[in-house]
Amino acid sequence: MKLASQRAGRDGALLVVSRDLATAVSAAAIAPTLQSALDDWERASPRLQALYDDLNAGRAARAFALDLGTLAAPLPRAYQYLDGAAYPSHIQRNRQARGESVPDDFFQKPLMYQGISHGFMGWNDDVRLPSEDDGIDFEAEIAAITGDVPLGVDAKGACGYIRLFVLLNDVSLRAIIPGELKRTFGFLVGKPASSLGPIAVTPDELGELWKDGLVSGTMKCWVRGEELGSIETGTDVAFHYGDLIAHVAQTRAFEAGTLVGLGTVSNEDESVGVGCLGERRALETIRQGAARTPFLKFGDTVRIEHFDRSGNSVFGAIEQRIAPLA
Amino acid sequence: MKLASQRAGRDGALLVVSRDLATAVSAAAIAPTLQSALDDWERASPRLQALYDDLNAGRAARAFALDLGTLAAPLPRAYQYLDGAAYPSHIQRNRQARGESVPDDFFQKPLMYQGISHGFMGWNDDVRLPSEDDGIDFEAEIAAITGDVPLGVDAKGACGYIRLFVLLNDVSLRAIIPGELKRTFGFLVGKPASSLGPIAVTPDELGELWKDGLVSGTMKCWVRGEELGSIETGTDVAFHYGDLIAHVAQTRAFEAGTLVGLGTVSNEDESVGVGCLGERRALETIRQGAARTPFLKFGDTVRIEHFDRSGNSVFGAIEQRIAPLA
């Protein structure tokens, strides 16, 4: 099924959305917010599924035409966001351009960090930031949203705790990140709030795209109106969602609503382009001696959209403009 | 005023607690949970304060004798936990014992990381962990709980967004952490869920202990029944709470209920002891060539308590036993 959150309060108001995104219906009688549905998934999900089936069949009372412009992030604030670096070419290129290497154990265990899990912008919100000099960048990702994950779950079992997938723009400040990583305590000031795509989709709804712990399909990215990349998301990865979840769950249980990103999508084949400007600049540095593509400036736009094998949008698009603080 | 959460559901049930911790009263009519009170602090706080005044005067209807054993963490799950390393002697000793140095810019800007913000244990919960071989340690801290903090707030202004303070045991796995920090993405598997003291206290309630962005008083720690440290918390720091909040708020607003820790308490004077076993072992390594104090084993106990100038407990104690997974 497909879920979304209408802009309302701190957590949005849960909607069930039809398969074709044409109509929607309030899920308030089942769960007022997506977080509350995830907190009580065993009870809520069969009822949401029944409402979804009714909506698709044109039988849902009080269904209305969906206006994507009214949607917030499906989960505007969450208790945990874990982001990985599962596409090796993304990390290898970035590090190579800086004259650094990937950690020795990069392929032995997932490289991950704990990120900011609140303030998620809606798909069409302006990205408001204090300075153009911070090296503003986007990162195209697909994030899993989990239920309650028990401590000690294994990689295969971990996939069974994924409730939804959502598009994610992991906003990054490239001028700040290298200095922050040198201090070894991870990302903080260099990772401001991120954005989520409008529609959260259950694994079963993905059909054949959801396989072996990965979401296949094509992630397309445009910056300033120019196509920057067209990346296959189900290949060229060192680890899948279950691996990432199991890695962190070695010593902690997860609260329902945890977001787990695989990291910026990237393919070994350079000709398909990239899923962020930093990697394009890294490739320019490696191949041509210097970065030429500028980072994002106020007024620039970013568009991210993931497509299935028939060219249908899977999660709806993220389409944002970079802007100064209001 | 003093607030606490009775064990109930995922977020606990908000209580107002009397100054002497003898009685309590449900705050459900004002806000069902501490998170909901923080979400709506302008409205909720004067009403909670009035209830607190009534309770202390013996005028609160439905007041009952407080049983500390019924309390959960005041905020069992939060949207953000930021932890600093503001006591230089803690970091210098740990790094020196490993043959490493502190980052060059350690005194220029706060060293901080984004930590796990859910799964906070109650003050007397067992710390259940998978293995004694992970180098189980505690860390004694006082954390601020903020309201909504605007992006760009300065260090002085940031102190005005602190709503509460609470005792925190930042559980750490010393065998995992050095390898994790080498990967530069910060703490993750090496930092399982932490614990909060039973009573959250407003800055005004701290009186003279809350001054210049710091909480003074004496933090006492006991391990296996032995006193490990008696640390002055308001001195020997490189940065105060406002500095830490402002550092991260350069590029993000905070969601209400953010926890901000100053890091493991530590004094330059070695004779007062330490606020975690890692630092004691570091001092043993530096002074005697090898660590001798063992990390925590299953069955071991930890006690943390912070005292005012008259020897009164400020936040109630954290008292936990280390135990294997159930």
Automatic annotation (TrEMBL), chains A, B:
Keywords: Hydrolase. This is Fumarylacetoacetate (FAA) hydrolase. The lineage of its organism: Bacteria, Pseudomonadati, Pseudomonadota, Betaproteobacteria, Burkholderiales. It comes from Pigmentiphaga kullae. Residues 83-322 form the Fumarylacetoacetase-like C-terminal domain. One of its GO terms (molecular function) is hydrolase activity. Residues 1-77 form the Fumarylacetoacetase N-terminal domain.
